[in-house]
Amino acid sequence: MSIFIYIAAPGTESIYILKLSQKKYLTKIQQINTEGEPQPILLLPEKNLLYVGIRPKNRIDTYYIDNEKKIYKVHSIQLEYPINHISTDQTKNFLFCSSYHGNLIYLISLNHFGYPEHILFTIKNIYGCHFSQVDIENKILFSTALKENKIYMHKISEMIENNTINFKKHLIMGKNSGPRHLSFHPTKKYLYSINEFNGTVDVINIHNMENINIIQNINMLPIEYTGKFWGADIHITQCGKFLYATDRSANILTVFSVHEVFGTLKIINHYITEKQPRSFHIDHNDQYLFIVGQQSNSLTVYHMNDKTGLLHFLNNFSINNNPLWVTTY
Ligand SMILES: O=C1O[C@H](COP(=O)(O)O)[C@@H](O)[C@H](O)[C@H]1O
């Protein structure tokens, strides 16, 4: 089966759509002008929709994905602040949009078409908020406050039903670590944080909300690396056996194995990859890893070995320019 790849390229104010054929060829099937710089994107296959955060006239545009997997714009909602990350709750009725510059999270309701309707609630004072996502039980929203070195936790039912937040907890992360993106273990109660400023990944035990704690802090870069740290993205596989993380300064993609019971990490390998890899994506069958480089202006596709987690270069495609976010259908 073919895989369709969606890439936000703010440098040319466009979304690229590429097709990875069964024979592993990459072809461009559409490049659409977004009338503004697209940054985070989120694909909702259940409704054939693609949400795109646009700046500097801040908004979320919604695109419909047709049978050929091409897109056209169907809806737009204005926002006060630019957004850096979009996620949905587990019922796909709400969006959570994090704003690093606005230090907040917008909770937005979706109508029956899946279009963003109203800002229901705004969680304020999350300094340098780069990411927010609800846990698999659809109860607690976890978000990163990069400038505070904290991870915040909020109960989503309170915000949706009562327009309030009484329940608010936070976990203090390493000093000057800068937690940026998170990834939830698919079946166990562990959470992984990539830290922008210290080249590390944290493993967090979230079994008991009264006692959330960091159980491991591991360096993600080779010991001989002496450059600056600039951690970016982190994703765990659907099988829960492997975790991947990127650094934009070292241009390295690190592969970890995940302990079956304790969720802890062990480095398997490092790969030199695209230049300034701000975003990458793993397809839902854990078969391919797609990574874009803001400086190299290209996409690389790797095949993932399901037994070892190791990557094998498959293909590369030029993206003009500053590709910043990638996802697939
Ligand atoms: O990861 C980062 O994100 C912030 C915000 O990104 P922006 O594209 O919204 O400006 C950025 O300022 C920071 O330098 C970068 O490391």
TrEMBL record:
<dbReference type="InterPro" id="IPR011048">
    <property type="entry name" value="Haem_d1_sf"/>
</dbReference>
<keyword id="KW-0119">Carbohydrate metabolism</keyword>
<dbReference type="GO" id="GO:0005829">
    <property type="term" value="C:cytosol"/>
</dbReference>
<comment type="similarity">
    <text>Belongs to the cycloisomerase 2 family.</text>
</comment>
<protein>
    <submittedName>
        <fullName>6-phosphogluconolactonase</fullName>
    </submittedName>
</protein>
<dbReference type="InterPro" id="IPR019405">
    <property type="entry name" value="Lactonase_7-beta_prop"/>
</dbReference>
<dbReference type="Pfam" id="PF10282">
    <property type="entry name" value="Lactonase"/>
</dbReference>
<dbReference type="InterPro" id="IPR015943">
    <property type="entry name" value="WD40/YVTN_repeat-like_dom_sf"/>
</dbReference>
<dbReference type="GO" id="GO:0006006">
    <property type="term" value="P:glucose metabolic process"/>
</dbReference>
<dbReference type="GO" id="GO:0017057">
    <property type="term" value="F:6-phosphogluconolactonase activity"/>
</dbReference>
<keyword id="KW-0313">Glucose metabolism</keyword>
<dbReference type="InterPro" id="IPR050282">
    <property type="entry name" value="Cycloisomerase_2"/>
</dbReference>
